[in-house]
């Protein structure tokens, strides 16, 4: 050991390790010894014991883990405050978001109650608030309006003789559509969760989700414009429906209902002002001011007074039935028409919920089970669908308030509201609910700043964001999501198809090999080309890998081998002619010299070895294996040795299973690039590495940083 001024330096003496020698030293087990047979895994999974049964039950019902340790004295009052606060938020948001789903407001209350109660028992997150959410409400609304448009429920008024919409029949069928979609989506979530498919949410990248929610917020705003202005635009569905709706709404602006517009504007101003005060005073306030509930109560009182005095007409919520509705079977005939929408709702809802759950879990120092969250959310939706709820997920605004487990108290408040207080909100103006939706979307519009951030950080993520946003706006939520995910997957393929190829050089004084083009102090190793790809090699980029290797090494193998074979053919013809002449003269020499490109004088090069750094590869398919075999064969024809370095253990196993080592020995495969370089120097060089104090004696290598040799 040598100690310098700034660090401690070590001299390491060891032998050069190729794969064959490494297996001898480490006594690597065969793949059959490391991989458990399926029959054994199945047998172990079916084996039952008391501790395993307890873990399984507690894992499926997380409430059994924390409820026995729950202290009412320590947590009762804070949880009561939290539950009441979240419940107060559920009331206006549930009714408001039901309008987004094109359903009567009372079904928003149902959707805030039943799923939250189910999640209380099965959810593994202690802080998220399950209930109605803007994005899912819009997605459900697109399904209900597509399958139950107004024109399907037109009837003739017997008094006036004018066609009008049978609102009762329309809403009844829309509730059936929403319930069937919710049950199917929840079932999909449960099945995926039981199959441990909790990772599916990872395919929705953050830029994609944020762009999708931003575009969905634009759909939500457009859906509320008719209520805010008091107009009745035509219903459109399919691609570009948002454009058609916007044009129609703008054309109807001269017919704006002024009382409705006044109520909407006043509600929006009051909500924005009060929410800003809540944000500025949140450190001083133990509980946020329930401004939404206050606006609803005041709006209901004003509407009731105006209705009594017949001063003006304004659209109100209407009849809200009291009590709990009995469970009903969903209409199974609707399932085939909504299966794609149900799958989209299942994935989007899970992605939003699990991302919020992981955020709170990290903040409070515990872990959530992604697959169990999928099961819990699926059961919440599936059970809720039988009680005429629509799809739900976690809400950021409510979850921020529910920093403790106040779920039980929250559902209790909602139960009281549905049982006794629901009828009090029958005169509530729909314009107030539209204003609540409009103001709550403010946070999603702030996401447009992502464009500037992604422009600076990652252009490909920016393209994903923009494509997702445009496709969701123009193609609607269902087809927009499918197009967005497809494009995001294409970017992954594009990145692996066009990786960065680089030639590595040696950093003096270390065992590191870095990109020559990116580092000034890195030196090229004479006679050796070290080639690296930033992505794994597989069928989509194997040919590009070979072309890049030819370009970086400066050796056009195809032309060189073609030229060599032509010269060999000419040489054989000359040899045959010479043999015939020699036979006549009986002076033919039997020792014919082997043709080499160097002896032909066509090309000259200084490379005697190429090292392929495969440390970035995490798998090898048959196409890549064939490409590597061709590289060994083709470069061998021009007397350039090929070596592989840095393979991970699974890659070595795949090479073995593919028969790669049937004609290529494991002595060509080294554990590190440095081992391969030292081997090449010993075999083909002069035994020294420039700018590096090194001595090669057989297979024993003594390495020390420059100027530190003793």
Automatic annotation (TrEMBL):
This is STAS domain-containing protein. Residues 518-680 form the STAS domain. It comes from Electrophorus electricus. Keywords: Membrane, Transmembrane, Transmembrane helix. It comes from the Eukaryota. The keyword Amino-acid biosynthesis does not apply. Its main location: membrane. GO terms for molecular function: secondary active sulfate transmembrane transporter activity. It is found in: Membrane. The gene is slc26a6l1. GO terms for cellular component: membrane. CDD domains: STAS_SulP_like_sulfate_transporter. It is a multi-pass membrane protein. SUPFAM superfamilies: SpoIIaa-like. The keyword Transmembrane applies. Pfam families: STAS, Sulfate_transp. Coiled coil: none annotated. The chain crosses the membrane at residues 97-122, 177-199, 258-277, 289-308, 342-362, 462-494.
